[in-house]
Amino acid sequence: MQALRRRDFLRITAGAAASLLAGALRAPAAWAEKFYREPPWRRKKPYWGFGVDVDKCIGCARCVDACKTENDVPREPFYFRTWVERYVIRKDGEVQIEAPNGGLDGYPRVEDAATVAKSFFVPKLCNLCENSPCVQVCPVGATFKTEDGVVLIDKKYCIGCRYCIQACPYGTRYFHPVLQVADKCSVCYHRLKRGLVTACVEVCPTGARMVGDLSDPESNVTKFRENNRVQALKANMGTEPKLVYKGLDKEVR
Amino acid sequence: MHDAVVVALRETLGKVTGFIYPNELELQWSILIVLYPYLTGLVAGAFILASLERVFNVKVLKPTYRLSLLTALAFLVIAPLPLQVHLGHPERSFNILFTPNPTSAMAMFGFVYLWYLMAVLLLEIWLDYRKDIVGWADSDPSWLKRLIYKVMTLGVFKPTAKSFEIDDKVGRALTVIGLPSAILLHGYVGFIFGSIKANPWWSTPLMPIIFLFSAMASGIAGVLLLYMFLCWARDVEIEMPCLDTVAKYFLTAVIIAFSLEMLETVQKAYEAEEHFDILQLLIEGKLYLSLIVVQVWLGSLMPILLVGLTQLFELPDKVRKVFYAVSGSLSLVGIFAMRWNVVVGGQFFSKSLMGFTTYKLELAGREGLFSAFVISILPLVVLGVLLWLLPPWEKKPAKA
Question: Under a CB-based contact definition with an 8 Å cutoff, are residues A19 and A25 in contact?
Answer without folding.
Answer: no
